[in-house]
Amino acid sequence: MLKWLIRVIFIVLFILAAFYITKKETVRYESNSIALLKDLSKKQKIDIGNLLLGQTSSTMKDSKVMELYIRSHEMFDYIDKKYHLREHYASKELDFAQRLYKDSMLPMFKMNESNFMKKYNDDLLVTYDEASGTIELKFIHTDPKIAQNILKDILKHAEDVINQFSRENAKVALGFIQKQKQQKRKEFINSIRKLINYQNKHNTIDPTVDVNRKTKILANLESELIKYKVEYSSKLKILSPNAAEIRMLRETISRITASLNRLKKELSGKKNRKELNVNVFDFQILESDMEFAKELYRQTLINEEKTKIEVSQKAKHIVVVSQPTLADDYTYPNKVWDLFTVMIVLLFIYSIIMTGVTIVQNHKD
Known about the structure:
The chain contains 11 helices and 4 strands. The protein is rod-shaped, with a radius of gyration of 46 Å. Helix 1 runs antiparallel to helix 11, helix 3 crosses helix 7 and helix 8 runs antiparallel to helix 9. It folds into 2 domains: 189 residues, Bacterial polysaccharide co-polymerase-like, CATH 3.30.1890; 131 residues. About 4% of the residues have low confidence. 68% of the residues lie in helices and 9% in strands. It is α+β, with helices and mostly antiparallel strands.
């Protein structure tokens, strides 16, 4: 008698489940789309090293951030304002088993933010494909047109927000670069002042030029000295040492020799004075410091302009590979599969219970 009662109970349960699945369960439609997130601010390339080390690429990171945002409470609020998802999840558009209730005693059926978010994320399917870098999005709703429009709005709003993230990061970077620009500008101006002060102190524009000029004069004087010495030696053979012409040559040689000695002292330096070569070295250090500060300042200005462009431009773009589809037939429930699943589950539970009953009865006998 007990076994027959159990059989009847399971048959009734199967009939009730079948009636719910075939007659009462709300039919829902699925819209799907495939998208690719592109970074327009730089060339994207596959980093083989990252792949071998199991590290994530920048494209994958951006796509994962996009997925997290799509599933976030902020996105749900945005979609709810346009399509009233909270009202939908508590309305009679859904059957009694899928609906949320204001005064439900069961936590999973109670109208609260946690259950609203769960319903939203259950209806939203996001799959990232690492091989192609694409994201497959699906949304389920009782109205196929609304499902399609929600998916379109999710893609559009996600792109705007992802770009807003990029712009905010660029603004932070721009603030730092602008501070660096002021510092580099001060350093550049200070290096110019140091160079000008050195030039004023030593009464020179460029010691290197002075060295080159004096070296040329020294070479010319040495050449003149050799020429006059040869002429003096030649004429001394035929003229008296006291001859006017010989005296003039001696005076000329003496003046050239004095000039040579004076130039050599200026080039080699005196004991109480820096050597000119040392001046050249100091000047070149100051000049190279100025050029280095100038290049740093120039690079800062270039980086500032690049970052300004990043602040204003649309760096991220969602390329919609496949537009959100409009379903012409319901996707859920899969009635045949659901009936088969219910039947298998009930048979499994039934077999366990019947086995237990049989063991108990045999034990009594």
